[in-house]
Specification:
Strand content: 25-35%
Strand order of the largest sheet: 1-2-3
Order of helices and strands: EEEH
Mean pLDDT: 87
Helix content: 25-40%
Low-confidence stretches: none
């Protein structure tokens, strides 16, 4: 079973937005950072789009591992 992944967008400085992927336990607690933005985006929407691309990439990266684990 895989753990839930959460995408969050933060604004650490005014007008500077960063995304972060957090992996949590099955209850959504104890988050740990999987990946985060290398550079900040100028808008929330740009950070969200970049974060969604990273999330989809992480899901695709894990997909073959899930298929192998289920067939074992």
């Amino acid at each position: 079973m895989t753990q839930p992944i959460e995408l969050i967008i933060e604004e650490p400085a005014l007008g500077s937005f960063v995304w972060r992927l957090l992996e949590t336990d099955a209850n959504g607690a104890n988050p740990k950072v999987l990946r985060d933005a290398f550079d900040p985006a100028d808008t929330y929407e740009a950070a969200l789009a970049a974060g969604q691309r990273a999330l989809h990439s992480e899901i695709r990266r894990r997909a073959p591992n899930q298929a192998q684990a289920q067939s074992a």
